[in-house]
Amino acid sequence: MSVILSLSLCSSHCDGTCDGSNVIPGARVATSVLYCKVAEEGGGTSFTKANIFVKPKPLMATFFTYKGVSGKFDTGLTEHSGCPVTKGEKWIATTWLREGVSRDNTWERYDPSGIPLILDEPYRNDNEQQQQEVEQSEGEVYHEDHSEL
User: Radius of gyration (Cα) for the chain, nearest Å?
Assistant: First the structure.
């Protein structure tokens, strides 16, 4: 029997902005975590400000969204951290879902909050432009997959 100890701790963070701002096209709006292999001890997920702790079972998934019905990011309830593994191994696969991206307007063009990284044309950061982009992309949700195996 082999035991792998992990001393690393994932610091508490938000996958969206957690600041109550408007969601803009290209931003992450939800996260899915698949627990491929769970640790014998430790390795859960703690939602710091929501007072929720997820103790995973093998092949269990956790899904959470940080976009509210108002179209704004939450104000910290989805802040979370991976707890350290104290015995065994933990393997997860994480998928971040974004709003307003497509095959032609891919997620790689944006940081997690939706700010463009590489632009083909100037980007106007005003509410009218953002609203027009939201209306044009409504119903289009794609995901990015960064599996950690």
Answer: 17
